Amino acid sequence: MAHRQDQQRRASIHDVASRAGVSAATVSKVMAGVATVKPENAQRVLDAIEQLGYRVDPLASDMRRAKRRIIGAIMPEFESEFFGQMVTQLESLAEQRGYTLVAASSRESEARETEILARMHDWRVAGVVLAPVRNEHGPAAAFMKANGMTGVLIDRVLSDDAFDTVSADSAAASAEVARELVGKGHRHILVVGLGEQAATVRARLDGFRTTALRLAPDARIDVVLAESDVEPLRAQLRDYFAKGERPTAVYSLFLKGTLVALSEFRRRGWHCPDNISLVGFDDAEWMQVTWPAIAAVVQPVRQIAGHAMEALFARIEGGEGPPTARLEPCQVLMRESVGSPGNGPHPANQ
Amino acid sequence: MAHRQDQQRRASIHDVASRAGVSAATVSKVMAGVATVKPENAQRVLDAIEQLGYRVDPLASDMRRAKRRIIGAIMPEFESEFFGQMVTQLESLAEQRGYTLVAASSRESEARETEILARMHDWRVAGVVLAPVRNEHGPAAAFMKANGMTGVLIDRVLSDDAFDTVSADSAAASAEVARELVGKGHRHILVVGLGEQAATVRARLDGFRTTALRLAPDARIDVVLAESDVEPLRAQLRDYFAKGERPTAVYSLFLKGTLVALSEFRRRGWHCPDNISLVGFDDAEWMQVTWPAIAAVVQPVRQIAGHAMEALFARIEGGEGPPTARLEPCQVLMRESVGSPGNGPHPANQ
DNA sequence: TTGAAAGCGCTAACAC
DNA sequence: GTGTTAGCGCTTTCAA
User: Which of A183, A190, A253, B41 lies most in the core, judged by the most C-beta atoms within 10 Å?
Assistant: First the structure.
């Protein structure tokens, strides 16, 4: 803490006005760039602003305005690279338009999600970017609808009848993963995911299964879906392998699943890609430096953030029309964790 | 976007007042929990609030208050687990006290850091938690001082003459890493870091070197410090090894350095711990599932966040006294990436 | 081209 | 106990 510094009130618009010898209204006009101010007066105002170091108080300014220049962002968590990058992008885009981004974490709780939303409604934010915990049918989206809030849904959503949505094209990416794995000769593949994020998980699963079975009708696709938490998934995966199942490849539909799969491989002493291949949805920086590097689906964070903000501001500015549902293409990075089934000792033979 | 929903004005305090047959002031008192309201009237107010779904507008409420109930948080980035967890914690602690946390990323830029701070000053936040890009002597801290802002400095700081500081006890943790490595027999160790974060890096480096040399005066400690960016570090590290240097262990002073070290090991075909041992400052979830698991110093995020907020609110509530400088103890997790020098083929022998 | 006046939604003094 | 009054700092008619 600075000790008793210049704690004197900050200059207000009236201070500027009196110093420039005009009214507060004129100062306001100068700040807004209105042309109908006599150049001479405008200059006096500018000088006064400079001398006093005046800056408008955004809160006071918003009080009088119809829409406040604040965008709310609600993410399921802040701890992952994906959402970290997302918030960074959204913040940057909001700033570019002169808005402040207020980000909050729902910590994977739908109850908290609605609470935060209510608080943002109290703040009378101009719009909200909501990355729902579950999907577009949760209580948060319902709250937004019921209260006539302006918003965009991203990430774990497909499409909605009230809000624009933007998400990664999980189905297409998963189809590509299927092509890669089947192409390498895999015929017994395990898919792991979280059932909670229903629509997204289904898209990823269907996209994968459909393509895999089309290319190799004899292929066997097993699925291990935990309801809502990661620890149960760990247990289910352990059981699956304990039963003696020996797929040659695993496709994890989300980041934590990839970590769980890796840790299960560790426990069993299996290495990628010799004993088993692995591809994960969601990339992370470490995946390219570990040995082996882990193959991953890279989500187009910038595109998602960009189009979400575009859609949001279009609505804020009064844009009409039916809600849009965008799917942004992903990139699939096949790395060393994927090989051909025959290349090493199969776990079944150990 | 919800299409033409109940866009009618939200209930204001006056709506509640007239419905309850009292004045706005009385409603305000009820909301504030002031005891001097006739129970009967209080009930009528409560009923009206309930019926109208009234909630106070935090902005309007703050307008009239001396201190606004907003805490600003400025982090160098949002993409890492460390700062993600930090923001999550800070948000939670601010909420507990009825404050809103507004977080912003300086994106590792001191210029941006000052801009954000100026904007937070415009918002007249009650206090700021600043995790400076460089250290406590940057322009941001100077701005806070000059403008009499209330704040706490965390992470890349040691102590300050104007603000309370809270950070991990890097020196002690580094000393422990030294004990572990020397204890395992390492006598030639490379330390990599980023020079920009001067004080913190010095503390980590000194803590390590002092202890290592005390325990093994014959040990050789090499240092590769990049000025401010990660890519130069990569190049410097490459040069270092290209010169034929063959330390038996590497201690990275920050997370990105650990990634760079791993990727350089990859490039050279070295494995941990057989060819070289590795310990990194900063833990991450993936470090315990890769093979080998990577040894790391775990920073006490919760403690740092907790004490930072404690110190901040103490100052907000008028607490006096000289600034405090807290150091929170870290945990050192020795994992498989660390072994004894003799255990495998030394890279020099390859 | 300008400024007076009204008011955004709320709280805090101070009468009553 | 309660209501009146007076703002917080700004924007926005609207009349001059």
Answer: A253
pLDDT tens for each residue of A131-189: 999 999 999 999 999 999 999 999 999 999 999 999 999 999 999 999 999 999 999 99
Q: Please answer yes or no on whether A266 and B289 come within 8 Å at the CB atom.
A: yes
What's the CA gap between B147 and B160, in Å, rounded?
Answer: 16
- Count CA atoms closer than 13 A to A154's CA, side-chain side: 31
Q: Which residues of chain A have pLDDT under 50?
A: 1-6, 349-350
Find tokens 């935090």 and name the residue: B58
Sequence-ordered list of residues with C-beta below 8 angstroms from that of A325, at least 6 positions apart, any chain: A158, A159, A160, A164, A165
Q: pLDDT for B294-333, tens place per residue? A: 999 999 999 999 999 999 999 999 999 999 999 999 999 9
What are the b/e assignments for B141-164, b being 16+ CB within 10 Å? bebbbebebbbbbbbbbbbbebbb
Q: Which of B2, B7, B175, B78 is nearest to A322 (CA)?
A: B2
Residue holding tokens 């989206």?
A: A141
Distance of CA A85 to the CA centre of its chain: 8
Q: Do B256 and B195 form a contact (C-beta atoms < 8 A)?
A: no
Separation of CA B64 and C1' D5 in angstroms?
15
| Range B56-74 average pLDDT | 93
Model-level pTM greater than 0.70?
yes
The Cα B223–Cα B216 span in angstroms is 17
Q: Which of A120, A25, A30, A38 is nearest to A64 (CA)?
A: A25
Task: Provide the terminal-to-terminal Cα distance of chain A, rounded to the nearest Å.
Answer: 64
A38 touches strand D (CB under 7 A): no
Question: Residue A346's pLDDT is what?
Answer: 54
3-state secondary structure of B146: helix
Q: In sequence order, which residues have a C-beta less than 8 Å from that of residue B328 and are 6 or more positions away?
A: B166, B167, B168, B169, B299, B300, B303, B304, B307
Please report the pLDDT score of residue B2 as a whole number. Answer: 31
In sequence order, the 6+-apart residues with CB closer than 8 A to the CB of A134 are A110, A156, A196, A197, A198
- Tell me if A91 sits within 8 A of B104, measured CB to CB: yes
- Protein footprint of strand C, defined by Cβ closer than 7 Å to any strand atom: A 21-26, 29, 36-38, 40-42, 63-64; B 9-10, 12-14, 24-25, 28, 31-32, 54-57, 60-61, 63-65
Is the Cβ pair B5, A146 closer than 8 Å? yes
DSSP B217-285: TT-EEEEEEESS-HHHHHHHHHHHHHTT---SEEEESSHHHHHHHHHHHHHHT--TTTT-EEEEES--G
